[in-house]
Specification:
With 143 residues, the protein is mostly helical. It has one domain. It has helices at residues 7-24, 37-48, 58-74, 101-135. The radius of gyration is 18 Å and the shape is elongated.
């Protein structure tokens, strides 16, 4: 993972995590066709809370949500932090008088670490379940 991870890069695991969560819950997989931070988070959060193997870490989920919703409030489509000027020539992020870059970076790092950890856990759970189902395929019927 990059030391300086742009804010929009932390949202990428939300959409890929969405697909993993759908696979884990045996739901049809459909990747969202949006970059809207709140929309992506709401979809992922709903599935994270369905995780029946481990008790979801409500405090961590709440902290991630707080950061993502704050980011959504000034850059809902993850474009303003990438492009300093809009097509019409107006400045992006004009509503922010200043940003404490170190704190912003630290917050986004925590979000990225949480999402990366969820991704790793889901991949391991899916792989373990597949191995168990394969080992016992003759003994049990699986969907």
């Amino acid at each position: 993972m990059s030391i300086l991870r742009p804010p929009h890069r932390s949202i990428v695991p939300v959409s890929s995590g969405e697909a993993l969560l759908q696979e884990w819950h045996r739901q049809p997989s459909s990747l969202p066709k949006t970059h809207k931070i709140e929309t992506l988070w709401r979809m992922a959060e709903k599935l994270l809370l369905l995780d029946d193997l481990d008790e979801p870490d409500a405090k961590a989920i709440s902290q991630v949500e707080q950061v993502l919703l704050q980011l959504d409030s000034f850059d809902p489509t993850s474009e303003h932090s990438r492009y300093p000027v809009r097509n019409d020539g107006s400045e992006t992020l004009a509503s922010l008088p200043r940003v404490h870059l170190r704190r912003f970076h630290e917050s986004m790092e925590r979000v990225a670490h949480f999402l990366d950890a969820c991704d790793i856990k889901l991949r391991e759970d899916i792989n373990t379940r597949a191995e168990i189902e394969e080992a016992f395929r003759g003994d049990y019927e699986y969907e």
